[in-house]
Amino acid sequence: MRIGIVGAGISGLGTAFWLQQARPDWPLAIFEAAATPGGALHTEVVEGFRFEAGCNGFLTNKPDSLDLVRASGATPLLMESSAAARKRFVYTDALYSLPESPRAFLTTRLLSTAAKLRVAGEFLVRARRDGAEETLEQFGYRRLGREFTDVFLGAMTAGIYGSTPAHLSVAAAFPLIAALEREHGGLFRGMLAKRKREAGPGGVLTSFRGGVSSFIEHLARTLRADWHLGSSIDSIERAGTGYRIHAQGAVTEVDQVVVATPAYAAARQLEALDGELARSLARIDYSPIAVVGFGYRALAAPLDGFGLLTTAAARLPVLGVLWDSSIFPDRAPPGGKILRAMLGGQRNPELARLDRDALIARAREGIQRSMGVDATPDVAYVYSWERGIPNYGPGHLATVAAIDAAVARHPGLALIGNAYHGVAMNDCCRNSRALATRVADGTGASV
Ligand SMILES: Cc1cc2nc3c(=O)[nH]c(=O)nc-3n(C[C@H](O)[C@H](O)[C@H](O)COP(=O)(O)OP(=O)(O)OC[C@H]3O[C@@H](n4cnc5c(N)ncnc54)[C@H](O)[C@@H]3O)c2cc1C
After folding, report:
1. pLDDT in tens, 404-437
2. Do residue 265 and residue 290 come from a single domain?
3. Mean predicted lDDT score pLDDT of the chain
4. Ordered DSSP codes for 184-227
5. CATH, residue 374
6. Residue nearest to atom 27 of ligand 1 (CA)
7. Is 423 contained in some domain?
């Protein structure tokens, strides 16, 4: 059984790895438009500073990334974030520590007393059980109050999705939060009930020595595949019981195909095969995000923490600033420091589309206004994601259900990627393992 995998981000690579474990005798052909695999997992080294273009690690509270790392023999590459970097900050009208305990929440100046009382009142808010889809903002205003939603959920959504509470469906983007209300009647009730069952520790942000690319390079080396790098796939058509994969004139025939490209690319590739499927795929929206990294050979600021997120009310040009070299010290050369700012998202999409010089200027302004750091960086790195992170807005679950139904019409076709069931590296690793199992067993391939 010859399998084609189109797109070599972590979703495609993970699927290839687990499939090879299950069916070592099935030939794999991997097609990737870029010159190197990895997609949103890509490290760039500039004068000794290691900048991540996208993802900088995963949380160990879920086993999925760790399972892939261990099974592929990459355990020696693992690197935990430094304990000193656990402290996080939020910028509203000033920089505040993010409260990490109930006691710190009671005393934080991030929220007014009235807002804290409103959060405590969540216990008394009746559960909504009509199944109607809400945005995270509607859900948050209803259960936790306006101020908490704007500050905490505003900063959190900027950090995870490059989005805002108003642009995200709570059921699609935060299914566990929606389930707390559905299954336990409320968030506090749900968390109390869960704490009794789940005594395990919270996760630790973990990455790889030298940056995420060192894991990708290792994983790619473990795959015995027919590699087609720099090969952008135009279309995928039916050919008898299998598929024909077209790349700029070159054609490859396979028995089954796994499409692991972003939804907008999959839409183009599958247009001729199934127009309805392509239209559903094209409905998945993405947030534009620009990443601006600065390397400093001798920066006086201590950078004691993980970094900061901002709220919309702060009116800063940055969604957040990660203090990368405090989190993973090997990212900067000895004595050096790295800051990495994120700009754009659903909050200010136009910012992500600025040119390099303007992005550097806006990132420096954001860093200066939020952290008071005005030093001229020695090195700058810019990566603009025109379509960075899928935005699971209202209607996302219905769109994914329509994609699922359409894919079921095409035996031997499977779709995977961060566009459907979770954007975190852990989600992609979990879904790729599940898909590989289904392909290996021949038990169908929904997204
Ligand atoms: C700025 C940023 C920061 C992030 N930070 C984190 C984080 O800290 N932690 C975390 O868990 N997650 C993070 N994420 C999310 C996570 O990195 C991604 O969701 C995940 O890596 C997506 O993997 P994927 O394989 O599904 O998609 P992608 O990585 O997008 O891979 C798709 C692949 O398809 C290829 N492709 C596209 N078109 C074609 C074509 N026509 N032919 C062939 N190949 C094609 C692309 O080149 C790419 O390699 C971040 C994402 C971004 C953008």
Report:
1. 999 999 999 999 999 999 999 999 999 999 999 9
2. no
3. 95
4. HSSHHHHHHHHHHH--PPPP-EEEETT-HHHHHHHHHHH--EEE
5. 3.90.660.20
6. 9
7. yes
Dist. CA 103 → ligand 1 center (Å): 38
In this structure, the chain runs to a length of: 447
Q: Measuring from atom 13 of ligand 1, which residue has the nearest CA?
A: 55
The whole domain housing 417 covers: 3-38+218-273+410-441
Claim to verify: residue 290 and residue 246 sit in the same structural domain: no
Identify the domain boundary among 135, 168, 197: 197
Choosing from 145, 164, 197, the residue where a domain stops is 197
**Res. 134: pLDDT tops 70:** yes
Q: Model confidence over 34-88: pLDDT tens digits?
A: 999 999 999 999 999 999 999 999 999 999 999 999 999 999 999 999 998 889 9
Q: What is the CA radius of gyration of the chain?
A: 22
- Domain check: are 147 and 222 in the same one? no
Residues 294 and 355 in one domain: yes
Who wins on pLDDT, 195 or 46? 46
Tokens of 101: 């305990």
Provide the domain count of the chain. Answer: 3
Classify residue 61: in a domain, yes or no: no
What's the CA gap between 2 and 18, in Å, rounded?
A: 15
| Residue found by looking up tokens 């700012």 in the block | 341
Distances (CA, A) of 308 to 292, 331, 339: 15, 18, 11
Higher pLDDT, 202 or 120: 120
**What pTM was estimated for this model as a whole?**
0.96
Q: What is the pLDDT of residue 446?
A: 64
Does residue 7 have its Cβ closer than 6 Å to ligand 1?
Answer: yes
